[in-house]
Amino acid sequence: MKPLLIDEVKQALRAKLKTELKKGLITGVRTDSRQVKAGELFVALRGEHFDGHEFLEQAIANGARAIVVDRNVPVPPSAKNGAVSILKVDDCVEALGSLARFYRRQLLRSVRVIAVTGSNGKTTTREMIYHTLSKYKKGHRSPHNFNNAVGVPLTLFGIEPDHEFVVVEIGTNSRGEVGALSRIVEPDVAVITHVGPTHLEGLGDIDGVSVEKVSIVAGLRDHGVVVCGMEHEGTLERLQALGQPLITFGVNPAADVCAQKVVWEQGRLSFETNDGCPVHLPMGGVHNVKNALAALAVSRRLGLTNQQVAYALADFAAVQGRMHYHNVNNIVIIDDSYNANPASMDAALTELCQHRQAGRRILVCGDMCELGDASEAYHRALGEKVASASVDLLLTVGPQAALTASAALESGMGKSRIQRAVSSKRLARLIKSMIRDEDVILVKGSRAMELEQVVEALKRYRGGRPRVARMGVGQSVPHAPGARTVKLHV
Question: Domains of the chain (ranges plus CATH)?
């Protein structure tokens, strides 16, 4: 972080002093008192199960130079000697965002900010953009899932003076969040990966999702540009109505950045851009072609050539929990367990059904959360798709995914090919007894389902036939392996 004067921090936050204003520089910003280092600012956030105001002494002991509070707490004895400045604001979360915006503006000339939002593909696209640009430039990106009102500001504070770019992931589960975060990061490039049914409890319907994602333009800087997928017409119409400079991507030939000649092979993808550049991705998931196109569009905007981007993407590694392939003792595990919504579940099911192998295709399906009143309809529709797809065994976890199992049964999938589990923990104990050599197992569900437990159990598979006949299974049909040309939906 580029150091800030304590007085600059006070002015940016319009804070009131509870102690003497200490001279000096702020060299970092923390919201966890345990992580505070000498010279840093501690912001005392409050959550459902914690209150940072209870840990002021710890922050001071660790060397905090200043502390931001939004409660009238007593000044700690260790702060009364002028060793630390305590600044009072109305709301610590808002103060964190205000300070992050101030810091971002100190870096206008040196750092290009890329903001990424979307119903699916945010994290993979963020990582692809960072992976590509970092081959040629020095930069930073959101760590882990830092995509909310706390994580986004902390991402910005991670920018160093010598960085040339930062890729910021912006998430939402209720109206107004994307626009508010965009106003903090003030992006030079705003990316909308995809618009689909997700977080419907807070956003209402797909139209509400579109409105929320389009609000990423709220903070777009002058001469900034929006990079957007072609799938959702309403989103493109909204962007065009706003008059924002727009770069489109997709498999639609009308897209500015388009993929053609898409070829899928187990765990690998290749395609050509519409201007003839070959691109190879060492990962599965045909939907990742679109994520790569978004990264290509952004990277070209920041001065890279097609060839430079293709070279960088050739060694991109799939993000853990997102279409991540594991080959373990004669089985293939497709770990897509990090999250799920109807669109991403459809894409994952397509990936599973692409496989041609001697064993079975097994779907471990968890609940898709936050779908509101539409949840039952989406889960039952998934069951109908599974029944008509090339899935040999369906294992569900959770009450909503049980509806998927019921719909699959009603749609003609044999009872012996379906099993329900009440929890991921229980399925993790049983699953090794259900699989056999050459099986391909896709694991997917919302984060709350904790399906990574199932993935970890599968990684301990030692090969051979099932030890216990827990359930009947359909007969597998051998298929010839090999590459296949695939057609993506436009």
Answer: 4-90 (3.40.1390.10), 107-313 (3.40.1190.10), 324-459 (3.90.190.20)
